[in-house]
Amino acid sequence: QVQLVESGGGLVLAGGSLKLSCAASGRTFSNYAVAWFRQGPGKEREFVAAINWRGDSTYYADSVKGRFTISRDNAKNTVFLQMNSLKPEDTAVYYCAADAITYRNEITTATNRYGYWGQGTRVTVSS
């Protein structure tokens, strides 16, 4: 199965930037769409951004549009989330997840459509 490990989280001031990485094992990782989700304190897990298996289509939650950018480097089995103009409400544990199936044609934001999850990396944005 696909194993995912997030990194890059930490403390940052409001307005600052942070880049998260999701390193994956498995020789078929490039065949899966990948998404970032987050779970803030006392909140349910929510969708943040996703990128399809080809890397030519992305989708973002309204709350992060224009501020976050998802990308992938399949040669390195890594997906990134560049976060700019961070706000205190971005504080959360961020998880990367790989689709439950390969070659899904359209990006999904539903948590139950993703079958592989990392342990998360914590992002704290202070005001």
* Biggest sheet overview: 7 strands, mixed
The share of residues in extended strands comes to over 45%
Average pLDDT number: 94
By secondary-structure content and strand pairing, the structural class works out as mainly beta
Tertiary shape:
globular
Helix content: under 10%
Oligomer: single chain
Helix and strand pattern? EEEEEEEEEEE
Distance between the termini: 40 Å
Number of strands: 11
Our Rg estimate from Cα atoms comes to 13 Å
Q: Can you count the helices?
A: 0
Low-pLDDT residue spans: none
3D structure, described in words:
The strands form 2 sheets. Strands 2, 4, 5, 6, 9, 10 and 11 form a 7-stranded mixed β-sheet that branches. A 4-stranded antiparallel β-sheet has the order 1-3-8-7, with no helix packed on it. The protein has 127 residues and is mainly beta. The protein contains no helices and 11 strands. A hairpin with a 6-residue loop joins strand 5 (46-51) and strand 6.
Question: What is this entry, summarized?
Answer:
This protein is mainly β. Helices cover 0% and strands 47% of the residues. The chain has strands at residues 4-7, 10-13, 18-24, 34-39, 46-51, 58-60, 68-73, 78-83, 92-99, 114-117, 121-126.
Which structural traits does this protein have?
7-stranded mixed beta sheet; mainly beta; 127 residues; 4-stranded antiparallel beta sheet; 11 strands
